[in-house]
Amino acid sequence: MKPVRHPDAPLPGELLGAHYEQCFGCGGAQSHGLHLEARAGEGVTVIAEFTVQPAHQGAPGLAHGGVLASALDETLGSLNWLLRTIAVTGRLETDFVRPVPVGTTLYLEAEVTAMAGRKIYSTATGRIGGPEGPVAVRADALFLEVEVEHFVHHGREEEIQAAMSDPDQVRRARAFEVNP
Ligand SMILES: CCCCCCCCCCCCCC(=O)SCCNC(=O)CCNC(=O)[C@H](O)C(C)(C)COP(=O)(O)OP(=O)(O)OC[C@H]1O[C@@H](n2cnc3c(N)ncnc32)[C@H](O)[C@@H]1OP(=O)(O)O
User: Fold this and answer.
1) Residue-level pLDDT at 177
2) Where is the Thioesterase domain (predicted)?
3) What is the ipTM of this complex?
């Protein structure tokens, strides 16, 4: 099935914000996190930027591959905002095309390519030097739609309780839920 942008999805250009302040990918409360900033694009697409920090190194002066995979995963995950669906990564296949030095800004874009039942297929690229620069990383992913209970059931009790008693967090979680 062709992916369809939800009628209440954020408008193209709108900053999506963090889905959870403690998220390693997008949260503001993680000092060594990616602080990735994503914006809605046209259709079912997003664009995002992430600047590699010294805490993200693998080899001297170079980004760790797992951190780059996290940036791709987070960008792909933010497509949920446009579908108003809660989905988690089931599969993430990553190509590392060029080394990414510390201090580099990675320009990411992601798109939902197909949907089938609970399955959401998507793809992402990360470019360096500018939004039109050479591709440094890319990924193909399969996300699986889940109920909010997925997190309540599997998450550690203390963080779940804190999230559920935070009105801002509850509001953000609702933004992912499909309107009947
Ligand atoms: C309160 C806070 C709210 C905030 C929400 C914001 C969240 C956003 C977070 C974003 C953060 C960034 C993002 C993150 O980092 S998300 C964090 C990383 N991901 C996870 O933790 C997910 C862990 N995995 C699971 O929980 C389960 O395995 C899931 C839910 C994924 C599937 O288990 P479930 O029991 O539900 O489904 P099923 O096993 O019956 O399978 C169903 C179908 O899918 C197919 N399949 C399954 N897996 C794979 C695979 N690997 N390759 C190929 N196919 C696969 C399977 O064959 C079957 O197909 P079919 O036989 O029907 O044809």
Assistant:
1) 65
2) 61-121
3) 0.95
Cα–Cα distance measured from residue 106 to residue 67, given in angstroms and rounded to the nearest whole number: 12
Is 41 within a domain? yes
| Owning domain of residue 126 | 37-174
pLDDT(170) > 60: yes
Order the strands of the 45-51 sheet from edge to edge: 37-40, 45-51, 105-116, 119-128, 135-145, 87-96
CATH number, residue 131: 3.10.129.10
Query: Which residues are bridge partners to 120 per DSSP?
Result: 115, 143
Q: Which residue did the predictor score with more confidence, 52 or 173?
A: 52
For residue 8, being part of any structural domain is answered with no
Q: Tell me whether residue 22 is in a domain.
A: no
Mutation to probe ligand 1, out of 80, 88, 112, 166 (largest number of atoms < 8 A from CB): 88
Which residues' Cβ are closer than 6 Å to ligand 1? Answer: 19-20, 73-74, 77, 80, 86, 88-91, 119, 142, 144, 146, 148, 151, 163, 173, 176
Given a cut of 50, whether residue 180 has pLDDT beyond it is: no
Asked if residue 30 is part of any domain, the answer here is no
Alpha helices in 84-166 (DSSP H): 149-154, 157-164
Report the separation in Å between the CA atom of 97 and the middle of ligand 1, taken as the mean of its atom positions. 26
